[in-house]
Amino acid sequence: MKAALWLSAWMGLSVVPSTAPTAVGREPADGTTLPGGGASAAPRKAPGTEPQTALKALEMSRAAVKAAPNDARRREAESRMKDAEAHFQAARYADALHKADEAWALLNPPQPSNFTVEVDHDGGTTTVTHRQGPPVTVEAQHATRVLAKGESVRVQQGTVLPEPPGAPQLAQPADKARFTLKATPAGLLGPVTLAWTSVAGATRYEVEVVAEGVEEGVAPAPVRTVQAARQWTLPALPAGRYRWTVTAVSPEQGRSLPSQTRRFELAAESLELNVKVKDGWQK
After folding, report:
1. Which of 55, 146, 244, 280 gives the lowest tally of CB atoms within 10 Å of its CB?
2. pTM above the 0.85 mark?
3. What does each C-alpha distance from 34 to 22, 25, 28, 151, 230 come to in angstroms?
4. Which DSSP state fits 274?
5. What are the start and end residues of each CATH 2.60.40.10 domain in the chain?
């Protein structure tokens, strides 16, 4: 069953791998590291638990009970679900959530996974930091954010995920610029400096340069870098056509959309040959 990893049920916050399903887990103690799919203590009974959060947990646990084999574990889970349903009907949503989670845990023992996130609570704020593994998707109040390794997002209780930063505006070189440069002994051309505008809240910028066609040989692999500054001088490249984009990254807001794409061309200077003839030199 494809389900969310409930890290902070009281906030409606969940985390799942971006490329694979995961088992439902439990909220860890503040500041602990939670491996994907691992279970820990039951979520806190927050007095402000929303009925939608409890209802979603009930729906997921009902489906798990229905799909489980008819054994002692399922019968115990059914008993917990009866308690959960009674709490929900009496508007005791935190208790309903707790019992539904217990039923789920009985039917879904923790499984090892290949990603790790760290969850830290500070009053009404939860910070999720992706520590290891493939990208994960964080969801809060029906808004989602993809986190790569090393990235984090901070969510205030009862609010949606912060808006991502704006995309950088490319400054130099102009689109479709053509550079005629002297080749190195290895036949490569440079330097070319790329520049872009700053983005509020961003602390670094991811730059990608992709070859669209080279004059000789095999096209080089895409060139990528992460810069804190607002410009970057490319390494020497073969003659040919290239495109480039920049993405802003904010520790609070996550990653922006890539900038608009610009293109440039690198061309080698033509060689001027002087040939000595009888009456002098001829070009």
Report:
1. 280
2. no
3. 13, 9, 7, 15, 35
4. -
5. 170-268
